[in-house]
Write a structure and sequence with these properties.
By secondary structure, the protein is of the alpha+beta class. The chain is built from nine helices and ten strands. It is globular. The two termini are about 15 Å apart.
Amino acid sequence: MAGHSKWKTIKRAKAATDKKRSSLFTRLIREITMAAKLGGGDPGGNPRLRTAIDNAKAVSMPKDNIERAIKKGTGELEGADYAEVLYEAYGPGGVAIMIQAVTDNPTRTVADVRHKLSRNNGNMGTSNSVAFMFDRKGQMTVPADGVNEDALIEAALEAGADDVSNEGEVFVITTEPATLHAVKEGLEVKKYKIDDAELAWVPKNTVKVEGDNAINLLKLLEALEELDDVQKVDANFEMDEDAMAGA
């Protein structure tokens, strides 16, 4: 089981019942603000912003929240001065981890990340200590229920996708970063349901983790993602279904 993909499924299930809905909104608002800051407030000319808005709408974020986040990013409204930061780390079993954050206080954020790593059998790495093990890609998932795999592959490749993998409950579609939104739109036109369209660090190879390492790794990933400043965590692991089931 490709753990880095299965982890997304686990997170989706948790989000459906998670009491910390406000934390999800906070992450989405920060992504919208950062996307608008870097690429402008027009989603028509800013694919990252368009994707962020789509993800916010998918969890029923109010329109006013989205519009305020955009205006804060473009400077039309006052707000925190956010910056993007990327941390590289090692987890239990030698798993490589990429941690993306958006923060108004990088000193606080790096201290929080180090604390979570140290308490959960992980270690902070130096710049490019693990990044070379990943490719920057666009990714999205399509629920597998009722979907013909061959037809989806044909539609995805025709829309410009690089790869489609069957992860059991979902199909994971990988694209180049610049074509993420075009592929998403191409599949939606053909009535496919798209979840979790995002830019991700996709591992070139995976590390198998078992036993205590598997348990501790899942605890670490969840602890990192509980941090308010952390937007996303990617890792190069795989593990058996029974280990994942305990997450």
